């Protein structure tokens, strides 16, 4: 339905990118962009009989654009890609859902769901510069995993025994097994960092954003 728009934009000499109904037209100045918008909207609505969403249509600098989940920036005169903040927020919300104890999932099902989501998400955004971002996300994500594990241990006896199995001395193990501190607080404690370590989480089958990104990232 929009192939006619592509031809019209090419005919007018515009530099643009379109995927489905998501369109970005690049202009050299704000005045040029305003003129382009004023001319192209009537064409879309009167010639193609399609409605332009005014709320999602904007004139902005390249750094303010969200296109297919990406945002853009310039470094040393070269255009680069980032993950847009809204895409990051959406991803973290999905991880919250997948690491929620209320869904009633066991370890195996949760690991598989997380693996599928993380690999799919990273493969989609692998063109972006996001290594430092994913290191921060992984730190938060591992805290979510430790919280879920602590919740699933449930009983004081189970927590104490598991902590001892994972190398915590008997006194500290029972001290923390009896703590009344909140789940999220305990998930960030040294006691779980030393017992449910990053390596143990990895060996248990959990996949991390930054590790997978390092294996598939596109360097350009």
List the helices and strands and how they pair.
Layout lengths: L2 H9 L3 E5 L2 E5 L3 H18 L22 E6 L2 E6 L1 H14 L8 H19 L5 H23 L2 H10 L4 H8 L5 H5 L2 H6 L2 H6 L5 H8 L4
Antiparallel strand pairs: 1-2, 3-4
Describe this entry's structure for a reader.
The protein has 220 residues and is mainly alpha-helical. 57% of the residues lie in helices and 10% in strands. Strands 1-2 form a two-stranded antiparallel ribbon. The chain has a two-stranded antiparallel ribbon with strand order 3-4.
List keywords for this structure.
220 residues; mainly alpha; two-stranded antiparallel sheet; two-stranded antiparallel ribbon; 11 helices; 4 strands; 57% helix; elongated
**SSE-based structural type:** mainly alpha
General form: elongated
What strand line-up does the widest sheet have? 1-2
Distance between the termini: 33 Å
Give a quick summary of the entry.
57% of the residues lie in helices and 10% in strands. With 220 residues, the chain is mainly α. The strands form two sheets. The chain has a two-stranded antiparallel ribbon.
